[in-house]
Specification:
Layout: H1 5-57, H2 62-69, H3 72-80, H4 86-99, H5 103-130, H6 132-139, H7 145-158, H8 161-177, H9 182-185, H10 187-206, H11 209-233, H12 247-261, H13 265-277, H14 284-319, H15 323-350, H16 352-360, H17 367-381, H18 384-399, H19 404-428, H20 430-456, H21 461-492, H22 498-522, H23 526-535
Helix pairs in contact: 1-10, 1-14, 1-15, 2-7, 2-14, 3-5, 3-8, 3-13, 4-5, 4-8, 4-12, 4-14, 5-8, 6-7, 8-11, 10-11, 12-19, 13-19, 13-20, 14-15, 14-17, 14-18, 14-20, 15-17, 15-18, 15-21, 16-17, 16-22, 17-20, 18-20, 19-20, 21-22
Length: 551
């Protein structure tokens, strides 16, 4: 039996309304992502300068290895209390009360969480300060006694910064929930700026310690004082209390405990590499740190912007039980991320030697450091899309109040990947660690993708897979062409001058992007036209608009 005209009209209206909701949501996310992307881009540029400053002032040696190893214990304590994830944990809790029209109750939960986490962090940091020597012997067993002593000193200096990071994460959460993204996004800008200042002002007198002083000051000002101002500006209401039986706090705790107990690959990756790296030749940890930092620059600019901007809306849609809209936003977010990250990943792999020379020219690094860092960068960049993808998929689970799945999967992937670290590091040294990192994160992302689509009953997941395959093929062909073109130029041109290296990067990247776009069009990637239309200011004809910065 056919549908009646009123029924068809009603279904058409529902479809139009759903499309309108998706478009409106995408515009909101795109606008917010633009704000976040601009601040993250500035932060990443400062991150470039931060790593360059370390290379310029100190170089690549046992002292820099000790500096990077000193982050392991602070990072672990931060992870132990779910500090890095508090914003994504608290947003769904707070959003639930706002959606239900009980915002005052939400602020009471905010006060309880803030009071509890402050006391917990002070206790944890104090324990870390007392037992730093013993803990460093565990996390950096391969270092010499002199290097271990330096790691202990730098660790104790930077540990108090974790209090600011954790509290800043909670204060950022209420700003995100209020759709205020600017001030939270400036935290890393201030943080990186003061690391740079600390290094340039103090390194000539105290060496690498100057950068550690910058870490502490940057955390206090950027993640502490600035976020207090932002939260007050967002209307935060705080009254110290420890009402640990409040349903909102219990909900928060249920979401936080899995992350506290888990050992997710996204956090343990750096720890494992530093542990193995302490047994390798001096500067191995530094090469890996430089390479991974360079890989993270485009990743955080694009992936973090999309993930941060979309998460509050995903939490809101789940609270409103608009599951179809939630899946549309997830699919659009992932496609937008892949469209930006995969071509950049291919170009980075093809031009890793040029990129590293351009960034670290005129520093204390020598020829072997350039080559080692370039190799690490290329191997890390293989997993660039997976780092961005897992960021969105894990937040998809968090938005639906499910933190157990990412925690359990992350822990399992860490355990599964440990033998791979061991095998590859023994065979390929530092190169094996970078390769194991990429293999592990790709596997983690794939498992999260499958489980999230089952969890949200996403019927359009096949379209995302097909989109990924097409963009990967186009980018892969372009990457091979750019690799050949780079080698051709480097064999014929004196490119070891920064202006020439920059020109080479621009020319080869332009060729690679043209090839990628042409092949994507040939394969019928319709989202590409919509995205390019947004960049030049044209209104896209399709509703399937990938996310990105508005014109």
């Amino acid at each position: 039996m056919g549908y009646s005209t009123p029924t068809l009209e009603r279904e058409n209206r529902n479809q139009v309304a759903a499309t309108s909701v998706t478009r409106s949501a995408e515009r909101r996310i795109a606008g917010s992502a633009g704000i976040v992307m601009a601040s993250v881009m500035l932060s990443r540029l400062l991150g470039f300068l931060r790593e360059w400053s370390i290379a310029h002032q100190v170089g690549s040696n046992a002292s820099t290895d000790a500096y990077y190893a000193a982050f392991t214990l602070p990072d672990f304590l931060n992870y132990l209390v779910a500090g890095a994830s508090l914003s994504v944990i608290f947003i769904p809790v707070f959003t639930k009360y706002v959606t239900e029209g009980r915002e005052d109750e939400g602020w009471r939960v905010f006060s309880t969480v803030t009071t509890f986490m402050t006391l917990l962090l002070i206790s944890v940091v104090t324990i870390g300060e007392i037992y730093a020597t013993r803990l460093v012997n565990v996390i950096s067993p391969g270092f010499t006694p002199e290097a271990k002593a330096q790691v202990v000193f730098l660790t104790r200096l930077m540990l108090p910064a974790q209090i600011c990071f954790v509290m800043g994460s909670i204060l950022s959460a209420v700003q995100y929930a209020k759709q205020q993204f600017l001030i939270p996004s400036l935290a890393t800008v201030i943080y990186n700026l003061f690391i740079i200042l600390g290094g340039w002002m103090l390194a000539s007198r105290v060496g690498i310690t100057g950068f550690a002083v910058g870490v502490l000051v940057g955390a206090i000002l950027g993640n502490g004082a600035l976020q207090i101002y932002g939260a007050v500006r967002a209307g935060a209401k705080f009254r110290p209390n420890l009402n640990l039986r409040h349903p909102g706090f219990i909900m928060f705790l249920k979401m936080a405990v899995p992350i506290m107990l888990a050992l997710s690959l996204t956090f343990t990756d750096d720890w494992v590499m530093r542990w193995f790296g302490s047994y390798l030749q001096p500067a191995s940890i530094t090469w890996l740190s430089y390479g991974k930092t360079l890989m993270r620059v485009p990743l955080t600019v694009m992936g973090q912007a999309v993930g941060v901007a979309s998460f509050p809306l995903l939490a809101q849609l789940y609270s409103q039980k608009k599951f179809d809209d939630l899946n549309r936003i997830l699919n659009s977010s992932v496609k937008g991320l892949l469209l930006m990250v995969i071509p950049v990943s291919a170009l980075t792999i093809a031009q890793s030697s040029t990129v590293v020379f351009f960034v670290f020219a005129h520093t204390r690094l020598h020829g072997g450091d350039f080559q080692a860092t370039a190799t690490a960068l290329a191997l890390f960049s293989i997993g660039m899309f997976a780092w961005g993808g897992q960021y969105i998929f894990s937040r998809g689970f968090y938005a639906t109040h499910n933190t157990w799945t990412p925690a359990l999967v992350g822990t399992l992937m860490t355990l599964v990947n440990l033998p791979l670290y061991w095998v590859l590091v023994h065979r390929y040294q530092y190169r094996g660690l970078a390769l194991a990192s990429s293999c592990g994160i790709v596997l983690y992302m794939v498992v999260l993708f499958v489980l999230l689509n089952r969890h949200t009953h996403n019927r359009q997941a096949g379209g995302v897979i097909l989109f990924f395959a097409k963009i990967s093929l186009a980018s892969g062909v372009a990457g091979i062409a750019c690799y050949w073109l780079t080698n051709w130029f480097q064999a014929r041109v004196q490119w070891h001058f920064r202006p020439v290296a920059l020109l080479l990067l621009v020319l080869v990247s332009a060729v690679g992007l043209v090839i990628t776009i042409a092949l994507a069009k040939l394969m019928g990637v319709s989202e590409l036209d919509a995205y390019l239309g947004r960049l030049v200011g044209r209104k896209p004809a399709s509703s399937a608009v990938p996310l990105g910065p508005s014109a």
